[in-house]
Write a structure and sequence with these properties.
The chain is mainly α and 492 residues long. The protein has 22 helices and two strands. A two-stranded parallel ribbon has the order 1-2. Helix 5 packs antiparallel against helix 12, helix 8 packs across helix 19 and helix 12 packs antiparallel against helix 13.
């Protein structure tokens, strides 16, 4: 990451501003405040915060056995809310905080979010019961939503448009690779204590908060004098929260149960009401959703691609860990380390993929990335057997899917950013991030439903359903990505 940020800053420093697109008037004055030598540090601070928020979505999975052993008598159902409480709050608050940041200032919301995330992480590390751990994870999710909803907007505000493909690549690499690095990092930390999974956030988040205070410049929509609509925000938060709750609890309650159907129906209904309310003229309140943005095909299709692709991504992470530990009998630490080549490829190809997308357009490159993920999952389907054979059976699939993730994530972010007016950057990127979190929750829920008891005690054949889910979800995402078109292409 350090090398990537230095490369971005270095490229920026030696190139002239003469051929760059003119900045919108509301951003022009602040842009001059960023010196070329500072930009690499700005990128590092924001990327570090994004990495922490993404890492904490997945790193807890691998700590479950240790947490259960420490809190004797805790059920798997109650422990699941250590993860689900964070994910649901994170997804539900992304868009409301994006709208708030456009009004009160993105830097202010970002730094407040880092501080809340830091304090909640420390509290998680000293939790005395499952109930207290879940409560602190919910607070941690609030902080994560605040910093994530403003992160890309702060970066795009800081860098000139010609640097956006690389910047978006690093941003996507920070989030995507951090999520995939959850198993190896978690495995190492849990060997000492599961509490380190949370306490490791403290020095990084405190450093990002301290440096961000002086490095980041404030940005907002200067023409916006209204406040976010409280009723619309309430409907949005409840809608996403109830929908995610219904999805993550569906395997236990039953997909056809009255409770699951009622939860999904209620969640969708509240989101529809949010849309209807947001589509009305509003002189006093900022609509919770900018329906004009969602009417733009590249924007809407990029967000939908992100949602569907995250079904495959989340299923791949969880399914891979369960297979390595359950079928091949790997230890938690060994399984975590075995995952490393995948996120490493994702990190490298996030930057490469963003450059390719800047030349050919986001849609075709994201679709090509989905083909790589399909190829990797098909490899696992035919090659992964009962006998451990990491190099020949597992590693090729990891490399292929890592390349695919690196091509997909930065390009859907670039497509979103290229269609947004500057005043709506925080809101628009929050829509993308919220869709991705909902997709991740759906991917885990579907995978658990497909595997059932085989998730713990299954054989290699049982996991063919997991590899098929990844391939099918990626295929659907690839078809949707083609409809994005060449959004994000840098004209020369």
């Amino acid at each position: 990451m350090k090398q990537l940020t230095e490369d971005v800053a270095g490229d920026f420093a030696i190139e002239s501003f003469a051929d760059e697109p003119a900045l919108p008037p509301q951003m022009e004055a602040d842009e001059k405040a960023y010196r070329p030598e500072v930009l690499g540090r700005v990128l590092a601070v924001v990327a570090a915060a994004v990495a922490l928020a993404s890492l904490d979505m997945f790193i807890v999975n691998i700590a479950f056995p240790a947490i259960e052993a420490d809190f004797a008598g805790a059920s798997i159902g109650s422990l699941s809310w250590v993860l689900n409480g964070y994910v649901i709050v994170f997804a539900a608050l992304l868009m409301p905080f994006g709208r708030l940041a456009d009004r009160v200032g993105r830097k202010r919301v970002f730094l407040t979010g880092i501080l809340i995330f830091c304090l909640a992480s420390g509290a998680c590390g000293v939790a005395w019961s499952v109930e207290s751990l879940v409560a602190f994870r919910i607070v941690q999710g609030i902080g994560a939503a605040m910093l994530m909803s403003t992160s890309l907007a702060l970066l795009l505000h800081a860098f000139p448009a010609t640097r956006w493909p690389v910047v978006i690549g690093v941003w996507a690499a920070a989030g995507g690779a951090a999520g995939a690095l959850g198993p190896p990092i978690g495995g190492l930390l849990v060997e000492v204590s599961w509490r380190l999974v949370f306490l490791v956030n403290l020095p990084i988040s405190l450093g990002a908060w301290y440096l961000g205070r002086s490095l980041l410049q404030e940005s907002r929509d200067p023409e916006e004098k209204r406040w976010p609509d409280p009723l619309g925000m309430g409907l949005m938060i409840l809608g996403i929260g109830v929908l995610c709750w219904a999805l993550v609890e569906a395997p236990g309650n039953g997909w056809g149960s009255a409770l699951t159907i009622a939860g999904i129906t209620a969640g969708v209904l509240m989101l529809v009401l949010t849309w209807v309310r947001s589509d009305r003229p509003a002189d006093r309140w900022i609509p919770t959703l900018d329906t004009r943005l969602l009417a733009e095909r590249p924007f809407a299709m990029a967000c939908l691609t992100g949602l569907v692709f995250m079904v495959a991504f989340a299923a791949m992470l969880l399914g891979g860990v369960l297979f390595l530990t359950g079928v091949w009998g790997y230890s938690v630490l060994k399984a975590g380390l075995a995952f490393f080549p995948g996120p490493a490829m994702a990190g490298v190809f996030s930057v490469i993929g963003s450059r390719i997308g800047g030349r050919f357009g986001a849609g075709p490159v994201a679709a090509a990335g989905c083909l790589f993920v399909i190829a990797g999952s098909v490899w696992w389907y035919f090659m992964m057997g009962e006998t451990p054979a990491y190099v020949s059976d597992n590693l090729p699939g990891l490399l292929l899917t890592g390349i695919g993730v690196g091509l997909v994530l930065p390009n859907i972010a670039a497509a979103v950013a290229s269609t947004l007016p500057p005043g709506s950057l925080a809101t628009g990127t929050a829509v993308l991030s919220a869709g991705r979190q909902v997709g991740a929750a759906l991917g885990v829920a579907i995978l658990v439903a497909l595997l059932g008891s085989a998730a713990i005690n299954g054989d290699a054949g049982d996991f063919d359903k997991a590899w098929a889910l990844i391939a099918i979800s990626s295929a659907v995402a690839g078809v949707i990505a083609l409809s994005i078109g060449r959004a994000g292409k840098i004209e020369t």
